[in-house]
Amino acid sequence: MKKNIFFPIACALMAAPLLTSCQDDVDSSAGEKSNTHTYSLVADASEGLQQAPDSRALTEDASHNIKSSWANEDEILAYVINDGLEATNYSMITNKKLGNGNRFDGEIASKDTISTSSQIAFLYPGKAAQGNDKTITPVVESKERSSLFHEESDKIQELVALNLTQQDGTAETIGNRFDFQWSKQSPKSVSGKKVNVNIGKMKRLVTIWGLRFTDDKNKPLANIDSIYVSNVKGSDVLKLSDGTFVDGNPEDEVMNVVLKPKAGEKFSSVGGNYTYVAFLPGTYEDVVVTAYVGSKVYQKSYSSITFGSDKIYRTDLLKMEDTQQKAYVEVQGIKWATGNFIHYKEGSQEYWGIAPTQWWISRRAVMLDPSSRKEVSSGGNLQSSQFESSPKQTTDDVDLFRFGSIAKALSFTGIAGLDVWGNTEISQQISSDGKHGDIAWYYTKGN
Predict the structure, then answer these.
(1) At a CB cut-off of 8 Å and minimum separation 6, what does 290 contact?
(2) Partner of 95 for a Cys bridge, out of 74, 213, 222, 343, CB 3.0 to 4.6 A?
(3) Cis bond leading into 391, ω under 30°?
(4) DSSP annotation of 432
(5) Of 38, 118, 36, 105, nearest to 76 (Cα)?
C-alpha cells in the first residue's frame, strides 16, 4: 500500500535530550495488616543530582526552553519488589529540600522484613497514583478474557497501568501527572526500623513532543479547541520489578492522546508557543495530528516516526489544510470521507477521532437525543442508520471509509433497502466492481 508522508524541511523532528528526573515521597497510608512491617525510609537524591541534573518539575521559560527543578513536597511511589504486601495504597516518600541536596523522607510498608538485599522500586510522579484523576493504577491480569488484558486492582501490585490519554498540553502538567520515571535500588543500610537508600538516576519512560501549527496560508493557528494525536501509545502496563512494559497485551494499549486546554483557555501557536504532548516511546506508523479550531479541522499525517525515551522533540506543522473544505482526507494513499472523523461527549468522557465502523456511528446516532429522531418502522431491534426524522443524511455522510469505492453510492434515487438499489445486483466481492450499494452494509456485513 502506498504511503504518503508530509515532511516539509521546516517540520523535521529535532530531538534534544530532556533531563531525567527523580522525585516523590513515600506515603504511609498503606492499609497494613497485623503482619505488616513499617519502616522509616530516607532516600538520598543528592548524589544523583551531582552525576547529572536529574529533576522532577517541568516548566517552560520565555524562550520556550523546558526547565527542570526539584520542588519541595515532590513525591515518589516506593514499592518493595516480590514482597506480596496486601495494601490499599502505595507507600510514598516526600522531598524535604534540605540545603543543596534533596532528601526524600517517609514510611514504607512491607510484608517481610527489609534488608540490604531487598529491592525497592521507585516510580515518579507519586501524586499521579493518588486521587480520582490518577494516571498510575495497580492492575492484575484478567481471568475473564481469552486474550491478555489487565483490570484495576483494589490492592497494590507490581503491575501498574500508565494512562497518558487525556492531557492539557502544558509542560507543567506533564511534569505533575505524566512524566513517568522509574528506578530500582537496594538499601545502603537498615538499622532497626530505619532504611537508607540512594535513588540514583531514574529512567524516564516517556517521550515529549512540542507542536506548533500554521494554516494553509502559513499563519500560526490560534484559538485551538483541542488536538488529537492518533497512532501513538497513550497507555500500557508497567512492571515495577524491572521498569519494562508487558508484552502481547494490545487490549491494554490505547493508541491515541487527546489534548484539551484548561478551562477557559485555548491552545495557540502565536508568538512561537508550543503545545506539548507526552506518550510512550517507539516507532509508530500512520501518525495523524488533528487540530480542531472552531468548525475547522486541520490535519497532518506521517507514515512513520520514531520517538526515543528521555527526549523532547519539537515540530512545526506548516500549511495544514482544513480537511472539512473537501470531501475526503488522504491517508496512506486511501481517500477517507470526512464523516469518519467524529466528536462526542458522554458524561465526563469526551472523544475525538475516527469511528471504528460506520455501524458504530449509526448506533451513536440512535442512542443520542432519542426525542428528536425515530428509526424506520422496519428497524425492529436492529440498530439502524435509517431514520424517519433527524439526523438528516447528506452526501458527505454516506460514503464513509473508502471515498468513491462504490461508484454510485452517493446516488439516493431508487433506494429500496440496506443492500438493494432497485433491481441492481450488488453482491460483488471486490469493492472496485461495485457500482451501487449501501456503504454501511457493504463494509460492515458480518461484523
Answers:
(1) 227, 228, 229, 230, 297, 298, 299, 341, 352
(2) 74
(3) yes
(4) G
(5) 105
Q: Where are the domains of the chain?
A: 9-339, 355-444
Contacts of 234 (CB under 8 A, 6+ apart): 163, 164, 165, 254, 255, 256, 257, 279, 280
| Beta strand 91-95 pairing with 75-80 | antiparallel
Residue with cell 514504607: 108
- The H-assigned helical ranges of 165-246 are 171-173
Tens digits of per-residue pLDDT, 302-320? 999 999 988 889 999 999 9
* Cell numbers standing for residue 349: 468522557
pTM over 0.85: no
- Alpha-carbon dihedral 331, 334, 339, 345, rounded to 10 degrees: -40
Q: What is the pLDDT of residues 90-118, one digit of tens each?
A: 999 998 765 456 788 999 999 999 999 99
Cα–Cα distance for residue pair 365/380, rounded to 1 Å: 16
Helix then strand then coil, in percent of the chain rounded to 5, is: 15, 35, 50
Distance separating alpha carbons of residues 321 and 297, to the nearest angstrom: 8
The C-alpha angle 233, 238, 240, rounded to 5 degrees, equals 155
